[in-house]
């Protein structure tokens, strides 16, 4: 889990709402006792560990790249630029 002052933009809230799920429901599916960590993920305070990100992908039925689109695009662009060099 990465926790620093940088906000990690994501679409977790959007996809949770599209599925009609409450934070409590998703937290339970993740195996969390309360909603605190999910709230931190949704607000961009923390990045979820890989296993949690894969669980979110399964819960919301979308690829991780959709949940973290901005990060995915930035990584993709860097790789594309490195290929050109």
Can you give keywords for this protein?
5% strand, 85 residues, two-stranded antiparallel sheet, mainly alpha, single chain, 6 helices, 2 strands
Summarize the structure in words.
There is one protein chain. The protein has six helices and two strands; from the N terminus they run βαααβααα. It is mainly α. A two-stranded antiparallel sheet has the order 1-2. The longest helix is centred in the last third of the chain and has 16 residues, at 69-84. The mean pLDDT is 94.
Strand order of the largest sheet: 1-2
What share of residues are in beta strands?
under 5%
Low-pLDDT windows of residues: none
Profile the largest sheet: 2 strands, antiparallel
State the total count of DSSP E strands: 2
Termini separation: 32 Å
Task: Sum this structure up briefly.
The chain has helices spanning 12-19, 23-30, 36-42, 50-60, 64-67, 69-84, and strands at 2-3, 46-47. The protein has a two-stranded antiparallel sheet with strand order 1-2. The chain is mainly α.
SSE topology:
Layout: E1 2-3, H1 12-19, H2 23-30, H3 36-42, E2 46-47, H4 50-60, H5 64-67, H6 69-84
Antiparallel strand pairs: 1-2
